[in-house]
Amino acid sequence: MPDAIVARSDVPAVRQDSTIAIIVFVALVAALVVLCRFPPVLDYPNHYARIWLLSGGLGEQPFPEIYTVDWSRTFTNIGMDLLAAWIGPFVGSDRLARALLFLAIVLPPLGAISLHRALFDGRHYWQIAILSLGWCATMVGGFINFQIGLGMALFFARVDLRLQSGSPARLFAWRLAAALLLTVMHIFSLGFYIAIICGLEFSWRIDILRSRAGLVRLAGHLALALSACLLIPLALYSRTPTLPNAGGNGFGLVWNDGAVLVVINLLSAIATYIPVVDVLLVLPLILICTRAARGGDIRIHAGLAVAACGLLFLSIISPRHMLGTGWISWRFPIMTALVAMAMVCPFANLPRRQALLLALVVNLAVFGRAGWIGWNWWLAQQDFASVERVLKKVPAGAAVLPLGHEPEIVGGFARSNRYFAWGLDTFRHLATLSVPFSHAFVPTLFTAKGKQPLSVLPPWSEIAVPEGNLLPTGVLSCPTMMREYRDYAPYLSDWRNRFDFVLVANADIPDRTVGNFMPSGLTLVEDAGFAKLYAIGKAPSTEPFSIPAGCLARP
């Protein structure tokens, strides 16, 4: 930003109003969700299939013999499941799934904007910048319960802020109610709420630490806040003592062990399909803050700054995977960013010309990023149409084995929608649409104990992987890959007899280990470009077994 951006005392400041831009952004997101039935959001198809089952699909054949619902399996991460069971039959699973995706995008930034307006008493242009945080790695990853929970926590924190000056009993009761709703939605959202309200209790200024009386009062307030917020999850856990990965081997800890991995993890707060593009579009917002700080035209809430530092610390030290749950460490950078954006107000008082310049820069950055997301969502509709086309060939009651091609090089703008963050695919769960579209079984539907109420009945449970990812195509024809993945997907040892079809995603790009090679005994049923469907021959093949050359070179 230019030096002239700092307001002069002899020039009256212009009134800033972010409302129109916020309304336009929300409308744009709504249009994207309506127009793009299945956007490149990693877990969304899997959640969609589960929502369809809980909204009434469980009563359709053949699913009464495949799935059952047991609400005692978990006490958290079930917000969308409860809504599917309660209102899904009335509004329809498709409308509900799209509404939840919409909320997962808009609630976090809108919650941060709501808190910012309460703290800084106005509709500042900076609130438009907060909209940029609607797009992040956890959103593109499809962590819908988590994302909605973040927004709820921020809105609840604004209510908490208003109640802090009133009756302690009413504040305690409110926190109990908020803790219940947040725990049911997602346990991480409760932790986020605790961090925010503790920061708000800390107050605006850091000088509270210089007063013994102030410290004692702060300690008492924090103790009451923690007790109110932790009572509910402890009570729920005592009734349903189930954690993810129950029966697994230990905690399954995987760390971001290296400076590069830590930086990559921190960038998850803004990363979507090509991180370099995200950084370029977010950079102007960072420059606004740094310029305001140098010019002394920035207000900061000290308590929330402490909370943001604590969340940043957790972003660095938390494991990447734990208890059968992936990308634990991704959750904290977006929390940090939301609190950091809500706690500052740069350039609150500017003359007209500089205020308009500020609004222009912020709007270009935010809506340019929204356009980038829209482009990728539009590209993905062809891939979804391809999957939908091949699923029409799958008969009800069939078992579908999902596979995918792993390209030699990941990147480029032509197919940017197929990958996000740092080479992670967005299409691995498209095969789960076999459940609502074909009434077929897929082993990778989310049915993990401790996280979902849906479970798989025997004998189908023998070939179900509750948190399974997409297996590479070469696994069927490469002995070394078969050994590598057999513990992860034990059904591979008898896949010909346990499945009826193989659905290959990303099939229009040769696989890096086997190219377009498929083992004998598979008959191509439908080639729709991105997706291919093969029927599995049950009789033993008489053709000699062969191993593609690329498989032999696999490390």
Distance between the termini: 50 Å
Question: How is the main sheet built?
Answer: 5 strands, mixed
Uncertain segments are: 1-9
- Specify the structural class: alpha+beta
Count the E strands.
11
Dominant shape: globular
Whole-number mean pLDDT: 91
Q: In order across it, which strands form the biggest sheet?
A: 8-4-9-11-10
Helix content: 40-55%
Strand percent estimate:
5-15%
The radius of gyration computed from the alpha-carbon positions, rounded to a whole number of angstroms, is 25 Å
Give the count of helical stretches: 20
Question: Can you describe this structure?
Answer:
This protein is an alpha+beta fold. The chain is 50% helix and 7% strand. The chain is built from 20 helices and 11 strands. The chain has helices at 19-35, 44-54, 79-86, 88-91, 93-120, 126-130, 137-140, 144-163, 168-185, 187-202, 212-239, 259-266, 275-295, 302-317, 331-343, 352-391, 434-438, 479-486, 495-498, 549-552; strands spanning 67-69, 298-300, 344-346, 400-404, 419-420, 424-425, 454-456, 471-472, 501-505, 522-527, 532-536. The strands form 4 sheets. It has a 5-stranded mixed sheet with strand order 8-4-9-11-10. Strands 1-7 form a two-stranded antiparallel ribbon. Strands 2-3 form a two-stranded antiparallel ribbon. A hairpin with a 4-residue loop joins strand 10 (522-527) and strand 11. Helix 8 runs antiparallel to helix 9, helix 10 runs antiparallel to helix 11 (212-239) and helix 14 (302-317) packs antiparallel against helix 15 (331-343). The longest helix has 40 residues, at 352-391. The radius of gyration is 25 Å and the shape is globular. The protein starts with 18 loop residues before the first helix and ends with a helix. Mean pLDDT is 91; it is low at 1-9.
